[in-house]
Specification:
Number of strands: 0
Distance between the termini: 54 Å
Shape: elongated
Strand content: under 5%
Number of helices: 9
Length: 287
């Protein structure tokens, strides 16, 4: 097995809400169709007038339960960085297996996988809170299941039990996980296409605030295409004579690994910008 599969797939399908809901204002951004007891204050007319673009400070205030989005997106950023370091340590194993960085390979994997699992638990809770569509929830739960499979590989690799694949861990766990993540991203993108998120506008660009969740989800799907490829190329398939199709240190594998990892990080950053998670770390005052 190879660590190439861990892919984030943040099913931040944020703005998917029930069809019977309506936005409080025409300027409301994605996921802003929340009722008065959602824990977020709606913007006044003067504040709406200020909502004119990056860094989207005023627009982000309309996101229901915004601080939950801030927390889970920072968790996904940590998960993405840990994944990139995990890939780097994996490649280092073939250069200097006794180096300290190489020995941290499975530890980076454990950190990354636990963060993905925690983040998707929080995300599923948030989606239920805002009344996400059934398709949006399906995509999120597929990624939650994927993160469970991802955790098996570094955890069993850390055990270094020959019956469980030795230091490489279970060979099939990442392969199963990456497929769940990838199809979850496809479901999420399809959901955004069929059910335009509140605040999104197909007439406006990818960088319009209400469209940022859609943009980030497509970035995630691009990431999982790379990670699916790297995993299939390097997977041992339980010792099959024809596997792996490419060695782990070969360019096709590590290029796909790092491309997928950095795209996951980029997607997580887009989501954090969407919820103003780099600037605003506080709740509005309680009435």
């Amino acid at each position: 097995g190879v660590k190439a599969a861990l892919c984030g797939g943040q099913q931040i399908c944020p703005s998917q809400v029930g069809p019977d809901r309506r936005l409080p204002t025409a300027a409301a951004m994605s996921d802003s169709d929340f009722n008065e007891d959602s824990g977020n204050d709606s913007l006044s007319d003067s504040e709406v007038g200020k909502a004119d673009g990056f860094p989207f400070t005023e627009e982000a205030k309309l996101i229901p339960f915004r601080m939950q989005q801030v927390v889970l997106n920072w968790i996904f950023i940590v998960a993405s960085v840990a994944l990139i370091l995990d890939f780097g340590a994996l490649q280092e194993l073939f250069v200097d297996p006794k180096s300290r960085f190489a020995e941290l390979c499975n530890w980076f994997g454990v950190l990354s996988c636990i963060c993905w699992l925690l983040g998707f638990i929080l995300l599923c809770h948030w989606l239920h809170s805002v009344g996400a569509t059934q398709m949006g929830l399906a995509g999120a739960y597929m990624k939650l299941v994927a993160s469970c499979f991802f955790n098996l590989q570094p955890l069993t690799g850390t055990m270094n039990d020959p019956l469980l694949g030795g230091s490489a861990g279970l060979w099939w766990s990442n392969l199963t996980g990456i497929l769940f993540f990838h199809f979850g991203n496809i479901v999420s993108c399809t959901d955004f296409y069929l059910h335009t998120p509140p605040g999104a506008d197909k007439r406006k660009g990818w960088l319009f605030h209400g469209n940022l969740p859609v943009t980030a989800m497509w970035v995630y799907q691009a990431a999982t295409w790379f990670l699916v490829t790297s995993n299939f190329l390097a997977c041992s398939f339980n010792g099959a004579t024809w596997a792996p199709l490419a060695a782990i240190p070969s360019p096709p594998v590590y290029i796909c690994q790092f491309s997928g990892g950095f795209l996951l990080l980029f997607g997580s950053i887009i989501y954090t910008v969407w919820c103003d998670g780099f600037r605003n770390f506080s709740h509005p005052p309680l009435a």
